[in-house]
Structures
1.
Amino acid sequence: MDFAGLSRAGWSVPTRAARLRWQDWTRYSSRQDALLPMGGLVGEIALDGADLEPFWPYLWLGQWTHAGKGAVMGLGRYRLLME
């Protein structure tokens, strides 16, 4: 799979609506004995499904595997809702 090409194609997917906000929080690391700043987007985004065809296998799988930094702590969760 050409993940670089898929990443570039993602920039052309139209967004119909977005209600996103940044949420900052901290977590304690016992390994580092320190509070660590974390943050991420929280909310909803509506995308145009016509251009999502090449992304579907990864979007579908990501609902259960989560994605990105902090996934081992339960971050990166999302779910797909189809209209």
Note: The first strand starts at residue 15 and ends at 29.
2.
Amino acid sequence: MYILAFDIGTSAIKSILVSHDGRIIDSASYEYRVISRYRNWVEQNPDSWWEGACHVTHALMERNPEAGKQIDIIGVSGHMLGCVPVDSGGRALRPAIIHADTRSSGEVEQIGKLAGRENLYHRTGCILSAQSSLAKILWLKRNEPEIFAKTARFLQSKDFLTAQLVGDIDSTDYSDASHALLLDIHKKVYLTDLFTELGLGTEKFPAIHKATDVIGRVTETAALALGISPGVPVIAGGGDGACANVGAGITAGGKEIYCSIGTTAWIACNVPNPIIDKKARVFDIISLNGDSFGVFGTMQAAGKSIDWARGLFNIESDDAFDREAALAPAGSNGLIFLPYIDGERSPIFDARARGVFFNIDSHHQRSHFTRSVLEGISYALCSILAVYRESGAVSGLRLIGGGANSKLWRQILADVLGAEIQITDAHADSITSLGVALAAGVSAGVYKNLDEAASMVKVVDTTAPLKENTALYERLYDIYGQLYQQLKSLYS
């Protein structure tokens, strides 16, 4: 028997076929477009997620023909902080407004005045920002009232896909609902009082489940489109951050900490109870089990900064980018990059912040710029890790996501963070989909709980910091930290 898992990423959907002992048998991916019609608008066509799910499933079934009738259970993960309005039949009423979209700054001001930013952070564990789903939904109500009126449910990306699988739009999970700024994380219920004050009502928000709850079975129509047998149970699934916690081998209340580098990047750990930071620099997301909490610090544009720089400097691949960056010395001869090309989240939460190359001189070449991009993202992650270090020493952290594939970047991260970088036995690009597959395994009775499932993941390689580079980066990081403080009044 097999577990089938999907992960809806910003640029592609990935699917993996997993055996009951946690081994990834095969994987496939399908790319789609991000739509950006105006500045600060970032959208996607939700139908491309379903089209991609059908494409990758057919690819897996063609290569593994015995699996088509032996899929035991299905799990879905997806990018968070979205707004997908659907009608009663599960059809998207407009393109999805995704996590990188920051058009709703006016709505943020309205919500902040009504609810109080500090009060909202204490209730939700999350920081009110233009990325918040709550602000996006309010923007839709104010600017596209006809779409709002037709909306039967507001879903997240993975909820849209599960609705296509089981034919039911009334499902989300605690991780997505909490990060969307829709839940009181202490009571684990919707903010119905705030919804009423904002004129949103409560009937447009789906029922909340633990990620491991079975919410339905694959319909005949969906099975035909996917090329699998109907009737396969589907779990509620979870947001990509919460799924990555499990896929990285992070247990509830354990001492493990990890860093995920994809289009966005984050540092996270799991704790039994939410942590409300006095300076509101990190946020809490309810874990897949619906009981413990992931504490996250997220930067907005990690891999996105590299993709942007690749296009800017006409570099054809990530490998070529690494080779170019490796030509420059550590510190890029004093060139510093602020990776705020789409605004920033932790620890500054400023949607208006923008990217900067600082200290350019006539001796800087393309290699210095490319390396400084890797270093600038690492400085941003260091500013997040500093918050965790206030609660105790951090000697090492696990690295997942596409960034973990770069040997050069692993060394830069180790040197900038002053911590050992650890690689697990799960492929770096499959961590999130593995996390939701393990959650599905819990639902199917393969594992006793998510902690047991997460313990299947082992550290297999490490990169230690180089002392001479660490000392250099400490000096440059100090300058990096001062740049935003000097510039923030100019961004507005």
Note: The chain has two domains: 2-236, 249-492.
3.
Amino acid sequence: MNRTPDTRPLWKRVLLRRLRFFGVLAALVIVLLGGSYLFAPQWLLRAHQMRQAMAAHVQEHTLRAGDTRWSYYEGGSGPTLVLLHGFATDKTIWLPLAGQLTAHFHVVIPDLPGWGESSRNTGESHGVQAQAQRLQAFLAALGLQRVVLVGHSMGGAIAGVYAADHPGQVAALALLDAYGLKATPNDFERAVTAGKDPFAYDDRAGFERSLQLAFAHPPKVPGRIEDVFVARNRADRAFLERTLAELRKPDDYLSLQHDLGRLNMPVLGLWCREDRVIDASALDSLRDGLAQAASISSSVLSGCNHMPMVEKPEATAQVLTGFVLGR
């Protein structure tokens, strides 16, 4: 059977072949993404976090220090900032802020022991005091000295206790909506005191309630990605409950408050005005208790709840940059 010769110009034939190729490629990508969303949403979440890390100019590393295999991000150049996350989160929570900092700072962001991709020692304490001790091993393994410690929520208490115990190792301390201080009781504190974990959830509705608790404007999360967080929360439930029980003990509950008088470095307190987890009145306790601090700075941001590094990364970076470079 004779074929009719293709009389179209060469450039048209080449263009059509390329268009067909890219059409098939696009269809394959759509199928793969759709399949990943339905059957392996954790891959999409991981890919999203990798894109965030690339945009923030940080790379992921691991090392063994003390009793923990630590996973951490590192990038940028300049004065070293070590960022410590809070309860029920991990190092990825800092990525929106890290993108604002790596142009001016050397940034190190670990998963605290037991959280994220760092190892968990079953049966060992993961309270404030124990984590502050582990932090010393991590910083020593990296050869870091005279760092600026930045701690959020539970990570703020850990940073403050570490700074009080190792003042020569901490050039400055920044506390973001930090745990461990006296504050006006709120619904969250009353629930925790009663033995409840407001951040425990078993379904998408519970996950969305936890977002509403921590964010002034909760992010929109696709349903199958919500399922990834729900599965993780269920798998970690025993650890979450055990750690929260430790944080309620007297030694941890006001751990930062008890050590304020020993802090002799410059200290920054940064709070969200609408924080419904740790009331902004804790900032007054911080300022009043810093009897020996070289300097005291404070800042209150509007339009955010308990997560300033996510809801207000530009404003948070501006405050941190001014605090560190203006000393």
Note: Residues 58-325 form a domain with the Rossmann fold fold (CATH 3.40.50.1820).
4.
Amino acid sequence: MTTLYVLCAITFGLATLMSALYFRERQHRLRQSSAPACDLLTGLLTRHALDLALREKIQKVDRGGGHFCILYIALNNLRLLNEAFGHDVADKVIKEVSQRLAECAGPKAQACRIAAAEFAIIVNGGKTVGRAAAKRVNEAFSRNFDFDSTPTLLSCCIGIATYPEHGPGKQIFENAGLAMRTINRRGGGDCCEYQLEMGERIRDQTLLTNDLRRALEMGQFELYFQPRVDSHSLQFTAAEALLRWKHPQRGFVSPLIFIPLAERYGMIGAMGNWVIEEAARCAAQWLKSGLRMRVAVNISGVQMLEQDLVERIEDALRRHGIPAARFTCEIKESEAMKDPGVTRRTFEKMRAAGLIVSIDDFGTGYSSPSVLRSLPAAELKIDGAFVCDLEQSEDARLIARSMINMAAALKLRVVAKGVETTGQRDLLVEMGCNELQGFLFSKPIPANDLEWLARDEHGAESNGFRHSLFWEAMHSELK
């Protein structure tokens, strides 16, 4: 009797489970059937309708062979238009873009609006057909969009993936999006075909980004310092703080890799604050050992927008007992020129606080002499790209000389980066450069190594470090 009851209970349970699954599937099908097939604003397919169309395309190719391509298209500057002119104008842009994309797709293709500024087009055929469709889209975007009598140019990024070559099932859509994001990260305005290594790169980058978020709290960052030398005495006078990341498995990760990741994913501000604090701490440690070395740190464009940046720098220097005059803030020219008004106000606050302000990588940001004249900077750092060819190129010498002469006319000190040969050194000294920095004098080294080097050099009465940097020379320097 007991066994019968158990069997009845199991049977009832299975029946209940099957009923629940049936009704859930039925509701899912009802939701699918009631979902709109067309986007209300643009008239293009919705994302749900695109999924159904992709499923049919995949089944057709799997049964009968052939190919199809999907183009994943993202507008580059819709957000800017939205912020400048409002949602109504942005909606007009979307409608006009959608109309042009539908024309590019043609009657045998299917166009879809995926999100606010993202679209997709399915075209029949292989790579050649996909490339031709991408070319038509780019040509469509080359014509002005006219809104309220204001001609506007838009640009887009296009990712192309081909089925079945570039992925199974719905993965083809994701791979087209991956190709689009790849070209977007390179600056946009072009098209890119999916490649297998893109997936590997994005997975590796995702893992690295996750590790980077934890690197600060795990104590994996360290500052290295590259000395700067006076061009006449060739003695060390200052040092630039350079951030280094020692990953527990990968070893040292290049700043060329992790700094762009930090900027892209909102970590550069916290990292910049850590650099300021650590640079002040290292300078204080040197001070205790008798070395009064000037320190330079790089300030990011994100930090330049922070209202309390200068106050936080002052607080760090005050807590560690470092005079503001021994602290240099280096801002890349390209960042400084993004918003000269913000740059000018921040520079003025820095100078009022007694900090030294330096425009880094000069020559790469297309600033004009009139803008430079209005910025309260104290020095320019010539980018290493203008130093490496000095010995071989007359044009390089003319450009470097003109930069140094312009800086002199504006009463700015000049520091040359990337000095690696004695020939480069001699030419820069002859041109009137004030300070030099590069592997010829020292590679970037840890703070303790710089302190030991200074102590050894000074103890041996070497000319490596300027005598006035040491405590025992302070009183004679002040007289």
Note: The radius of gyration is 31 Å.
